[in-house]
Automatic annotation (TrEMBL):
Record's protein name: Domain X domain-containing protein
Pfam families: Intron_maturas2 (PF01348)
GO BP: mRNA processing
Organism: Photorhabdus temperata J3
Domain Domain X, chain residue ranges per copy: 84-121
Cellular component annotations (GO), alphabetically ordered: cytoplasm
Length: 138
C-alpha cells in the first residue's frame, strides 16, 4: 500500500499484474524448508531467482537463466542459420559467434554455470548440424 504512493510521488506507477509480494530472506527459507515447502521463484532481467543453500549451509538467493528465453535463443539461432543457407559461411560464423559470446557474457554469473554449459553445447550442436547439412565428410 505504501510503495505505490511512494512511487507515485516521483511520477512512477506499479503494474499490479507484474508485481507480487513474496516471502524472502533466510528466515523464510528456513521456515519453508522445515515445512517441506519451496519458496516461490520469480523472474528478473532474464534470470529465474530462487532460494538455495551455499556450500557452507547458508540460505541465499541464487540465479539461473530463464527456461523460455534459453529455448527461444537456441530456436532463434537455429532459424537464423537455416534462413542464411546461401550466405558465406565465414560471415555467418562470425555473426553467430558474436551472438553466442554476448549471451555467455551476460549469463555467466555464479550459480548459472550449468545453464551456460548447456547453451554452449547446444549451440555447438546446432552449428555442427548446419555445417554438415549436406552429408558426406564430417
Amino acid at each position: 500500500k505504501v510503495l505505490p504512493k511512494r512511487l507515485n510521488k516521483y511520477g512512477l506507477e506499479l503494474h499490479e499484474d507484474k508485481s507480487q509480494l513474496i516471502p524472502a530472506g533466510h528466515i523464510a527459507a528456513m521456515r519453508a524448508n522445515q515445512s517441506e515447502k519451496r519458496l516461490p521463484t520469480f523472474n528478473f532481467l532474464g534470470f529465474t531467482c530462487y532460494w538455495g543453500k551455499t556450500r557452507k549451509g547458508f540460505w541465499r538467493l541464487k540465479y539461473t537463466s530463464r527456461k523460455d528465453r534459453f529455448a527461444a535463443k537456441l530456436k532463434g539461432l537455429r532459424d537464423f542459420l537455416w534462413k542464411n543457407l546461401s550466405t558465406d559461411k565465414r560471415q555467418i560464423l562470425n555473426t553467430v559467434i558474436r551472438v553466442i559470446r554476448g549471451w555467455i557474457n551476460y549469463h555467466s554469473i555464479s550459480d548459472n554455470q550449468r545453464r551456460v554449459g548447456q547453451f554452449i553445447y547446444q549451440s555447438m550442436r546446432i552449428i555442427y548440424r548446419w555445417f554438415n547439412r549436406k552429408g558426406g565428410r564430417r
